[in-house]
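Backbone-to-sequence.
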């Protein structure tokens, strides 16, 4: 077989190899470790783009590790999907593109941001493992392997959150809190998997989807998976870990943690749509997801307004923005309960929610990196101790304005494009939900006006007279994110038509998801 046929495996194999090489390379030359990580994730990004082009033009792909077919033919003639596979459709590769981009930019930003003399080899090794686990969660076609990758992501995340724990106690506390939440959630996911295996003797998600009966046990498994995956995504009221973890982790890691949370959100959507779908009471489950979304939007933004720590403020806004994704997809799921009544706005709502996942990864990543730039030069995250930084950090100021405008949903930035889709479609479902979403955006704008005034405007404080712009690698990373935010805002139809709509349809069309494995394609 050609090397290009193994791209799904190479996407994780290259950074995984680099993760194990990092400690060895670090013993020889610490400066090279960061370059190694950036190169490995750069190759993964290239491979992911190539695979995305193939899948979006040809269709879903199944990659089987160690064999040509995902199924084992039994003596009876029955084909049984038992092998380890990656099942990659438009939704999976959509999430893979987010992971690849964010992880690569996080590694590039880290080149200057991370102290070269403080466990740098361990830092990059864990960063690479986190990226590998996110790819695995998004590409796997096996629910047990999803659990394995989820656990790897949790362990890497805990260690990275605690990276600065030798200097202060707060990162250790945040890491411990995340460890407890992750352990509980992983245990519950494993319990749900045990239910499925006990009932149907299969772990392949396509095979499960083809036989699932929505029995009482299946409802229990769904009742476990929905809140647990929503908790890992940082949705209210299971958000207790998010503010501490996001605020205490190094800035590039926080950006990647946002994408990791979205990987759990993807798993939630995959379970609801691809695993249950036609057997599901979509109206009830849709409204449950909508309620999670509303709580996340409103509580997240109101808690953000009162924060003085810039990263903690942004962490609460991350919770709030997750609510928009849940709202859009929840409305789409609820509308599927009555497909005769104008289903097109349900698809539009889902397009808005899925589009917002990518947009959120871009502008929230940018905002966390600007907060990291401020901390890098000032040594504080307290807004009351900042002021006048626009005088000496002009690029960071511009990037912050772009990120703030995007998260508030102002045109012509990407946040406006996805929020507009959500507003219009949700209004047709229930006008009150759309009004709440718009009010949250107004409060978001007010919150970031406060941050801009506190950190960047006014006279430059005496202690910051010598402050200058951050290193070029950090500026470059923020510039790339800013350009993507503007491009997605100016040409949203291009992104929705070629990336978002195929992703939405791959969720809705359950038979297409199951057929590619069970049909032997």
């Amino acid at each position: 077989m050609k090397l290009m046929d193994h791209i799904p495996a190479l996407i994780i194999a290259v950074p995984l190899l680099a993760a194990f090489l990092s400690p060895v390379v670090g013993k020889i030359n610490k400066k090279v470790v960061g370059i190694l990580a950036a190169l490995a994730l750069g190759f993964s990004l290239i491979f992911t783009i190539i695979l995305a082009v193939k899948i979006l033009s040809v269709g879903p792909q199944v990659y089987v590790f160690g064999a040509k077919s995902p199924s084992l033919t039994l003596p009876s003639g029955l084909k049984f999907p038992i092998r380890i596979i990656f099942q990659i459709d438009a939704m999976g590769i959509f999430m893979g593109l987010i992971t690849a981009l964010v992880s690569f930019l996080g590694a590039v930003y880290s080149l200057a941001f991370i102290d070269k003399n403080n466990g740098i080899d361990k830092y990059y090794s864990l960063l690479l493992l986190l990226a590998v686990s996110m790819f695995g969660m998004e590409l796997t076609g096996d629910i047990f392997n999803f659990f394995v990758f989820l656990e790897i992501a949790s362990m890497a995340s805990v260690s990275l959150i605690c990276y600065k724990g030798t200097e202060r106690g707060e990162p250790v506390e945040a890491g411990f809190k995340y460890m407890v939440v992750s352990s509980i959630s992983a245990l519950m996911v494993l319990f749900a998997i045990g239910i499925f295996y006990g009932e149907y003797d299969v772990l392949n998600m396509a095979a499960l989807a083809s036989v699932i009966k929505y029995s009482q046990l299946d409802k229990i498994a769904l009742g476990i998976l929905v809140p647990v995956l929503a908790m890992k995504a940082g949705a209210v009221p299971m958000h207790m870990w998010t503010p501490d973890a996001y605020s205490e982790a190094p800035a590039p890691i926080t950006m990647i943690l946002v994408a990791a949370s979205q990987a759990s959100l993807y798993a939630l959507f995959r379970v609801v749509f691809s695993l249950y779908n036609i057997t599901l009471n979509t109206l009830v489950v849709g409204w449950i997801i909508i309620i999670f979304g509303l709580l996340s939007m409103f509580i997240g933004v109101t808690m953000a307004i009162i924060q003085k720590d810039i990263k903690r403020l942004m962490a609460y806004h991350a919770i709030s923005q997750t609510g928009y994704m849940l709202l859009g997809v929840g409305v789409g799921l609820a509308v599927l309960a009555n497909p005769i009544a104008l289903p097109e706005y349900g698809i539009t709502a889902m397009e808005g929610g899925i589009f917002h996942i990518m947009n959120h990864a871009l502008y929230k990543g940018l905002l966390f990196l600007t907060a990291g730039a401020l901390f890098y030069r000032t040594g504080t995250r307290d807004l009351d101790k900042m002021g006048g930084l626009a005088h000496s950090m002009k690029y960071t100021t511009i990037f912050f304005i772009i990120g703030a405008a995007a998260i508030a949903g102002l045109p012509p930035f990407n946040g406006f494009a996805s929020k507009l889709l959500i507003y219009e479609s949700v209004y047709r479902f229930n006008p009150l939900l759309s009004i709440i979403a718009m009010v949250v955006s107004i409060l978001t704008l007010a919150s970031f006006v406060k941050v801009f005034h506190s950190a960047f405007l006014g006279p430059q404080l005496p202690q910051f007279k010598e402050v200058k712009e951050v290193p070029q690698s950090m500026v470059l990373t923020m510039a790339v994110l800013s350009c993507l935010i503007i491009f997605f805002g100016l040409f949203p139809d291009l992104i929705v038509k070629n990336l978002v709509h195929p992703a939405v349809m791959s969720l809705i069309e359950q038979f297409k998801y199951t057929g590619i494995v069970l049909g032997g394609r």
